[in-house]
Amino acid sequence: MHGAPFDGVLIDGIHNVFLQFPRLQDAPLVWPVLFEMLRKRGVTVVTTHTHFDLDSDIDESRFARFAADISAIAGRVEPLLHALVSAADFYIELRTPKGLGENQSSEFHIVFRTATGQTPSGKPCLWQRQDLRVVANHL
Description:
By secondary structure, this protein is α+β, with helices and mostly antiparallel strands. The protein has helices at 17-20, 30-40, 60-87; strands at 8-11, 44-47, 90-95, 107-115, 125-128, 133-135.
């Protein structure tokens, strides 16, 4: 191809990769080779991963089944996540305020957990989804 080269790649939903492509877990070199190739080419990579917290208010049999499923998935994706977090320039956490379900809130906390060459404050910013607005250091 003779077009402009890519300078960025978004890998959205890494938590779904092993569900959609289960044989990838049998090829442990796919991820290191992919990310090293992108790094050598100077391509910026943004990767998202969703961590699910289980609601302990659901009945015990459903909770146990979901917990077992999520533990199995976490075991498959854990090496990949470890590699990503270790090599990441930024690690940003986005979550609903404590006590509010995902569908009950249009506000989310954004916290920078790590930032290469910087010390993040750890103070959350507030993202107001409805207004598409971020309020820094709101707490």
